[in-house]
TrEMBL record:
Family in the record: Belongs to the UPF0587 family.
UniProt xrefs under SUPFAM superfamilies: MAL13P1.257-like
Alphabetical list of Pfam families matching this protein: CXXC_Zn-b_euk
MF terms in GO: zinc ion binding
UniProt keyword annotation of Zinc present: yes
Keywords tagged on the record: Metal-binding, Zinc
Species this chain originates from: Callipepla squamata
Superkingdom field: Eukaryota
The protein's name: CXXC motif containing zinc binding protein
Length: 80
């Protein structure tokens, strides 16, 4: 199976939904901390089928990542 790459750069303010076909689609992202503005060095991937617990037992998110600079826990939650 071949791979097709698409690079999308956007400021996503007040966007409620951005979806691809299929639940097993991998989104490769460079993430920016919402607290200090640090941008990740490497590409991170997430899938809608993935789940990780949130700190303090507040449920789960598709991706949870701790910022290397300020140690804040950032998350991406799947909209159901």
């Amino acid at each position: 199976m071949g791979r097709i790459g698409l690079q999308l750069r956007a400021t996503l303010e007040n966007i409620t939904r951005l979806r691809a076909e299929g639940e097993d689609f991998r989104w490769y992202l460079k993430l920016k901390c919402g607290n200090c503005g640090e941008v990740s060095e490497k590409w991170q991937y997430l899938r809608l089928t993935d789940s990780a617990p949130l700190k303090g037992g507040r449920g789960s998110a598709t991706m949870v990542q701790k910022c290397k600079l300020c140690s804040r826990e950032n998350s991406i939650v799947k909209d159901e």
